[in-house]
Write a structure and sequence with these properties.
The chain is mainly α. It has one domain. Helix content is 89%, strand content 0%. It has two helices and no strands. The chain is elongated and about 60 Å long. Pfam families: Bac_export_3. One of its GO terms (cellular component) is plasma membrane. It is a multi-pass membrane protein.
Length: 89
Amino acid sequence: MTESDTHRILSDAFLTVLYAAGPIMAIALVVGLLIAFFQALTQIQEMTLTFVPKIVAIFLGLLVFTPFMYSMVKTLSDRAFDLIVSGGS
């Protein structure tokens, strides 16, 4: 295994983490901004109003995006294991 192979695997791993976590983080961001906007408009400062909708949205996002996340991680692990089996050549 050369230095370029190691660099490629590490960069693929970082990108996989970003792509897999990206949709869930985007959902949390959008829901959080909508709740903050709603609270600013109505001046309702209830603590459960900030957490419960975000938790529900993240859970629903995980239900929807789990197959995508699984395929991303599986592709990365298949490439890494194939490199291991081939002896790095």
